[in-house]
């Protein structure tokens, strides 16, 4: 129970830290250098992509047509193209980018928090120093390096790393690192761009990317994990699933279609690690000490389907990468619908006994879970409104200890752990260098609210910085962003946080009234 | 007698031609790269618009050529040779923002034309690719030239007479100087930013 409590607190704190420490975002200056063009060729308010940027990404990080005529730094040939006719007697020829396609990024932040920020110390005995949250704070962000490009022959690559932070995944370190094989369908005589394969570590193909979000704080629903009710005075839920959509996936993904018009799909098969525990020491890992990190044989599956309707009357304009506006090319007016589904099986292992109730053994709870959701995205000229709704369900298997035994021998199904929520965001590009943002995030989780009651004085959490007042948490976040240059951005965000409340961990009595820890955050970011 | 008449006639023709045999040559210094030198408008004289239509291309995310000089009244054709959408616009002609214009966008292989009826420098831009830029310098007279990269120029067939000659360079201040053309005449310019 203690371990689960710690995991729960770690997860919610990580989620809240995501509110004050902004999500990663990437524009690729290396592409600017390769093509001798401004960031705004592909990006609106970076890293938000315009339609051309989406097409560039869909094409494998190259211009959708006649790429070679735009490259200012010609690629290095790893073999003359004519060598391809001699394969398999020779190595199949490829290319590497002429310039090392490396981009660097750094950001720095300033936040100011409301007067309620230290209310959580009310839970501590009088005279006990608690966590101190200052009124204002400067905070350096990550220093990140990223590289992406094309190796010719329909093979693209991407790797990004927060090199200023040790650790991995959401704690810093390697973000995405993958190789992507484009247009594999041509081998099978399938339609163009109908089948791609991506292998490595990557963010799942979400409708809106947390890893490459332009907002200072992330979308809450994508940070939501599923930890069941731990509170001793409520029916328990033996659910301990650390999976969140912000976690990078490791595996393989098939995809096809385009993100700038028409259909798009993806199907991914990825490792499962819902406990967060390290795998046992690898005995077949590469000599450099890299370990495999799954905690289960099971492979999770993710799928997404979407369709985007470009709404221009003129079919030529509608089917092009960008629409032909009266004053120049622009993003299409479009309406996009999508759906996504994730299926996994969380694993928990316990010390138990065989059916005799005495002989020790390890018992394993395998709890299937799913996440299912839909998304919508509408764009008209400089106005873009979009949103996601997502719901999650985890099967709940409670350990069963027979009357004549002292250890559990198995599990019984009980009430599933569920949550739901999403967000709606509106972005308005008032000028090419000014974007106004308004966002509403909503997450509903009864388990989160019940767990906040903390009826276990013997196991106080490290911080109570998450005591939702109700099962439904609403957050409003207005913001504005300015491009000082195409590669330098100043961002401001005011987070109207959900109402919270602090309870006495022993009696459950309220120690405070409902309050909000509203926060104003400013960020300065550059990419090079 | 016939020979004498013919001789006088030939001499008259020769002398008339000599009146249009002048030129202006020199160098534009103080700046690097190509410049444009042109004769300002001449009071009481108009010049027919040329029929030739030069082409300003957009290729490889660049305007080509980067610098073009045309006579007032010239129609320039704008071609898109790229397989990406482009746009051509300018915010002023000779600094006059009322003469700004946006030509919209058109697909690969197609042209759009514009007739430049006002003299001055026209800075071309693309609103999709902000790094793209070029200049069209519209001369009020047919007497103009684009220098070479070292700044050397020669304007041919300038009738003898007194003129104001102006040198233009991207990002530099224009410089005008009176020039009395009598045959092959020198005019030097030193520009600064």
In summary, what is this structure?
Chain A is mostly beta strands and 528 residues long. Chain A is built from six helices and 22 strands.
Could you describe the 3D structure shown?
The complex is a heterodimer of chains A (528) and B (193). Chain A contains six helices and 22 strands. In chain A, a hairpin with a 6-residue loop joins β15 and β16. Chain A has 528 residues and is mainly β. Chain A has helices spanning 2-20, 29-35, 51-58, 220-223, 315-319, 446-451, and strands at residues 76-77, 95-96, 102-113, 136-150, 155-162, 173-181, 196-202, 226-227, 240-241, 249-257, 262-270, 300-310, 323-325, 328-330, 334-353, 360-380, 383-400, 410-431, 434-444, 472-485, 488-495, 519-527. In chain A, strands 3-4-5-6-7-10-11-12-15-16-17-18-19-20-21-22 form a 16-stranded antiparallel barrel. A two-stranded antiparallel ribbon of chain A has the order 1-2. In chain A, strands 8-9 form a two-stranded antiparallel sheet. Chain B has 193 residues and is mainly β. In chain B, the strands form five sheets. In chain B, strands 1, 13, 16 and 17 form a four-stranded mixed beta sheet that branches. In chain B, strands 12-2-14-15 form a four-stranded antiparallel beta sheet, with no helix packed on it. In chain B, strands 4-3-6-9 form a four-stranded mixed beta sheet, with no helix packed on it. The N and C termini of chain B lie far apart (64 Å). Residues 13-18 of chain B have low confidence and may be disordered. The A-B interface holds A 35-38, 40-41, 52, 63-66, 69-70, 72, 316, 320-322, 324-329, 486 and B 59-61, 82-87, 89, 102, 104-107, 126-131.
């Amino acid at each position: 129970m203690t371990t689960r409590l710690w995991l729960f607190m770690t997860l919610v704190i990580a989620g809240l830290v995501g509110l004050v420490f902004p999500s990663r975002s990437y524009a690729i200056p290396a592409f600017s250098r390769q093509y001798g063009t401004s960031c705004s060729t592909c990006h609106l308010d970076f890293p938000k992509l315009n339609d051309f940027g989406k097409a560039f990404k869909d094409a494998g990080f190259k211009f959708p047509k006649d790429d070679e005529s735009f490259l200012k730094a010609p690629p290095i040939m790893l073999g003359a193209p004519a060598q391809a006719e001699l394969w398999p007697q020779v190595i199949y020829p490829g290319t590497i980018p002429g310039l090392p396609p490396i981009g660097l990024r750094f950001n720095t932040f300033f936040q100011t928090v409301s007067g309620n920020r230290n209310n959580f110390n009310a839970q501590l005995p009088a005279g006990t120093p608690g966590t101190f949250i200052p009124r204002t704070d400067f905070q350096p962000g990550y220093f990140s390096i990223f590289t992406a490009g094309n190796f010719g022959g329909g093979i693209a690559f991407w790797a990004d790393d927060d090199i200023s932070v040790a650790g991995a995944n959401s704690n810093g370190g390697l973000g995405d690192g993958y190789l992507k094989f484009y247009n594999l369908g041509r081998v099978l005589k399938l339609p163009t761009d109908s089948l791609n394969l991506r292998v490595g570590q990557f963010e799942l193909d979400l409708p809106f990317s947390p890893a490459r979000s332009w907002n200072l704080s992330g979308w809450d629903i994508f940070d939501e994990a599923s930890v069941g009710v731990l509170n001793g005075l409520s029916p328990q839920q033996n659910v301990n699933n650390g999976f969140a959509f912000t976690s990078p996936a490791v595996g393989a993904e098939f995809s096809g279609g385009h993100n700038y018009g028409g259909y798009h799909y993806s199907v991914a098969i990825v490792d499962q690690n819902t406990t967060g525990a390290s795998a046992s020491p690898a005995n077949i890992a590469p000599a450099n000490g890299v370990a495999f990190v799954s905690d289960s044989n099971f492979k999770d599956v993710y799928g997404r389907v979407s369709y985007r309707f470009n709404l221009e009357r003129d079919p030529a304009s509608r089917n092009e990468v960008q629409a032909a506006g009266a004053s120049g090319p622009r993003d299409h007016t479009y309406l996009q619908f999508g759906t996504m589904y994730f299926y996994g099986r969380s694993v928990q292992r316990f010390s138990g006994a065989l059916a005799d109730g005495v002989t020790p053994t390890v018992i394993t709870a395998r709890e299937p879970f799913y996440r299912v959701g839909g998304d919508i995205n509408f764009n008209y000229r400089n106005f873009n409104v979009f949103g996601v709704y997502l719901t999650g369900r985890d099967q709940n298997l409670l350990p069963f200890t027979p009357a004549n035994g002292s250890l559990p021998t198995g599990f019984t199904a009980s009430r599933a752990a569920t949550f739901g929520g999403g967000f709606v965001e509106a972005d308005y590009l008032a000028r090419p260098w000014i974007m106004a943002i308004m966002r509403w995030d909503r997450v509903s989780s009864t388990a989160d609210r019940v767990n906040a009651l903390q009826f276990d004085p013997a196991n106080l959490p490290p911080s109570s910085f998450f005591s939702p007042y109700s099962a439904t948490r609403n957050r409003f976040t207005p913001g504005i962003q300015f491009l000082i240059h195409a590669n330098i951005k100043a961002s401001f965000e005011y987070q109207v946080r959900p109402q919270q409340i602090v309870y006495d961990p022993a009696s459950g009595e309220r120690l405070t009234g409902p309050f909000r820890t509203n926060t104003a955050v400013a960020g300065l970011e550059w990419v090079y | 007698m016939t020979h004498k008449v013919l001789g006088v006639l030939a001499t008259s023709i020769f002398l008339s031609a000599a009146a249009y045999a002048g030129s202006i040559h020199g160098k534009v210094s103080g700046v690097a790269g190509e410049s444009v030198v042109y004769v300002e408008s001449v009071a009481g004289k108009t010049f027919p618009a040329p029929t030739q239509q030069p082409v300003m291309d957009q290729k490889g995310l660049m305007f080509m050529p980067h610098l073009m000089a045309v006579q007032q009244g010239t129609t320039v054709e704008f071609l898109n040779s790229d397989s990406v959408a482009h746009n051509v616009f300018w915010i002023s002609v000779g600094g006059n923002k009322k003469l700004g214009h946006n030509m919209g966008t058109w697909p690969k292989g197609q042209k759009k034309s514009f007739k430049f009826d006002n003299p001055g420098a026209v800075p071309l831009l693309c609103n999709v690719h902000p790094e793209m830029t070029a200049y069209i310098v519209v001369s009020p007279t047919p007497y103009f030239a684009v220098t070479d990269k070292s700044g050397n120029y020669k304007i041919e067939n300038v009738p003898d007479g007194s003129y104001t000659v102006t040198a233009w360079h991207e990002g530099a201040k224009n410089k005008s100087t009176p020039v009395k053309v009598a045959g092959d005449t020198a005019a030097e310019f030193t520009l600064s930013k």
